[in-house]
Design a protein that fits this description.
PH-domain like; 235 residues; 2 domains; four-stranded mixed β-sheet; four-stranded antiparallel β-sheet; 2 helices; single chain
Length: 235
């Protein structure tokens, strides 16, 4: 049985000298003496770490449902073929990707779902050309025709608190990206006034790894040009 200190992480052993990755199955409270899978790396051309989420589903082999958060590392070889490692532990998957990339002198590429991200997740304007967004207890309307950003915030008990800003007070737009649990959120935030109040004017929340960041970057840049302000793209 391998010493736990000899394992890179989880059930994986890594020998940086001979560039070999081994998987040791669980046995009792530890691991089996021999690995059930061994791969000695060939010269590589890329290392990609895929991270995505989906609704929990039943495993084909029975047992409990598969977790919502999924992770995969793929090392593509120069001569064709690849090494694919499915590892649900995100920290461990990141260590595997980093170890392989370091051995090959490569940078780890980060992607969403292996089948590719898809577009069509941008907000649609209403019949008056307005953008509407909801953030927590606040509903936000961006009306470029009247030149207003209107915020209506639900109070904890009764009623609403309403505020209005001129679009001329917008200093810049920021595209932010956040992952909480199995969900990712893209948000276009208007930074308003000398106090730089942050007001989300467009957003999308869905399972991680499926929405197209490029689509959201283009949307943010187009909206910023329409408003005559700078766009800052974090996503």
């Amino acid at each position: 049985m391998p010493d736990e200190g000899e394992l890179l992480c989880g059930d994986w052993g890594w020998d940086a000298v001979i560039r070999e990755l081994s998987h040791y199955p669980r046995k009792g409270k530890g691991h089996a003496d021999e690995p059930d899978a061994v791969e000695r790396l060939q010269p590589g051309r890329s290392v990609t770490w895929y991270r995505w989420s989906q609704p929990p589903m039943q495993a084909h082999t029975g047992g409990g449902p598969m977790p919502a958060g999924l992770s995969r590392v793929v090392a593509e070889y120069e001569g064709g073929g690849n090494l694919t490692v499915n590892e649900l532990d995100r920290d461990c998957a990141g260590q595997i990707a980093a170890a392989i990339a370091s051995a090959e002198g490569l940078e780890v590429q980060h992607e969403g779902a292996p089948t590719g991200r898809s577009g069509g997740n941008l907000p649609e304007r209403d019949e008056m050309g307005r953008l509407k967004a909801t953030s927590g207890r606040s509903d936000v309307v961006l009306d470029e025709v009247t030149g207003e950003v209107r915020v209506s915030r639900r109070k904890r008990l009764l009623g609403r608190e309403k505020r209005s800003y001129s679009t001329s007070e917008i200093r810049h737009l920021e595209l932010t990206y956040e992952v909480k649990g199995p969900q990712e959120t893209f948000a276009v935030v208007a930074v308003i006034g000398p106090e730089e109040e942050r007001v989300p004017v467009a957003s999308y929340t869905g399972f991680e790894g499926w929405a197209d960041p490029a689509e959201w970057r283009e949307f943010t840049e187009d909206l910023a040009r329409s408003l005559g302000v700078e766009s800052r793209l974090e996503a």
